[in-house]
Specification:
The protein is an alpha+beta fold and about 250 residues long. Helices cover about 25% and strands about 35% of the residues. The strands form three sheets. Strands 1, 9, 10, 11, 12 and 13 form a six-stranded antiparallel sheet that branches. It is globular. The protein starts with a helix and ends with a strand.
Length: about 250
């Protein structure tokens, strides 16, 4: 649903600016998860410039996981332990499916597959092999050259409201070995407007207009949202692009 919101706004503005759609389709998802519960959501949309060096290894690992293609052959189905709601695999414990089934389904991914995706997105390597969280309830544990991903034993239920995120691509600018992507960003949480992903400083005029209209149109997004510049560079060995930095621009 969040992606649909972004896409509709993008279509509204597409005729006025040059946008490399092929590039966007391949690389825009490097910027974070539209499912805000996963991998810290759209954390690059901060009030400060974020570079490759700003990110933790766990953030890179999680984003790499989201950009993988998971095949059926990567899945393992385990029987639960007798009298317990978990399964054990190589001394690692995972909760049963949906926390109430008789089996556990986990994903087994090679270290090399994750490392290759990290290299593709960030043109670098992680410092060490380590566990990471996909969201509050899904975890990936590292052991003997593989990541095993499944449900955590402890179920977490969040009562926090989920924000709605609106993004619209303004343009792409292509240089010799770089592509810059410019987009607007606005967060709506409990009918209040915020201009970056982490901000708790309400934009009151925006909130008032949103309350009257009950929707976010491009004019509102452009006026009160933040314009971000995302820089991607080409890897000359692969002819593919990797993310370098994301910067909020002055209005």
């Amino acid at each position: 649903a969040l992606f649909l919101i972004f896409y509709l706004l993008y279509l509204l503005f597409r005729p006025l600016n040059k946008v490399n759609e092929e590039f966007i389709n391949e690389y825009y998802n490097y910027l974070g998860s539209n499912d805000l519960n996963k991998c810290e959501g759209l954390y690059l949309y901060s009030e400060e410039k974020i570079t490759n060096d700003s990110l933790d290894d766990t953030q890179k690992l999680c984003n790499a996981y989201l950009n993988l293609t998971i095949n059926e052959e990567d899945k393992l189905v385990l029987d639960k332990e007798k009298n317990y709601n978990y399964c054990t695999y190589q001394k690692m414990k995972f909760a049963v499916d949906n926390y109430n089934e008789k089996q556990c389904t986990i994903t087994k991914i090679s270290k090399e597959k994750i490392a290759t995706t990290v290299k593709t997105i960030y043109n670098g390597e992680i410092g060490k092999d380590q566990d990471f969280n996909i969201d509050d309830n899904n975890i990936c544990r590292y052991k003997n050259g593989y990541y095993y991903c499944g449900l955590s034993e402890n179920f977490v239920y969040s009562l926090q409201a989920t924000p709605k995120i609106y993004r619209s691509i303004l343009k792409t600018v292509e240089k010799d070995n770089e592509v810059e992507v410019y987009d607007y960003f606005l967060k709506i949480l409990e009918d209040k407007c915020y201009n970056n992903y982490f901000s708790d400083e309400e934009i009151s005029k925006c909130s008032q207009k949103f309350a009257k209209k009950g929707e976010v149109k491009y004019s509102l997004l452009k006026k009160y949202g933040t314009l971000y510049k995302h820089v991607f560079k080409k890897n000359n060995d692969t002819d593919k692009y990797y993310w370098v930095e994301t910067t909020p621009l002055e209005k």
